[in-house]
Amino acid sequence: MARKRYPPKLKFQVVLEALLGERTPGQIAKQYGIHPNSVGLWKKQFLERGPELFAQDDTVLEYERRLSELEQLLGKKEVEIALLKNFLGRKDERRAEGGAGPRG
Predict the structure, then answer these.
(1) Are 25 and 39 in contact (CB under 8 A)?
(2) Which band of pLDDT confidence, cut at 50, 70 and 90, is reported for residue 44?
(3) Could you state, in order of their start, the residue ranges of all structural domains in the chain?
(4) Which secondary-structure segment (H or E) carries 79?
């Protein structure tokens, strides 16, 4: 039999209620239609992984900084490509007009 999957929002709500301590895990489980062991398991996972939630803020900032750097690099490369195309276009125009200049 496959394990039933629950949405993260439901798990979070269950954990919040468990942390409040106003009701027993059995009462919370009955309200949400889940197994009482799930309440304890989700609470344990939340408490163990809680610090990771705040660590991700730094990760997001690092990715945003790196994205900004890459966007700037891309802009520079686009300018370089445009200049090279312009240069090559002028060179092709000179050839079409009869050469790159007077021949000796």
Answers:
(1) yes
(2) very high
(3) 8-96
(4) helix 36-96
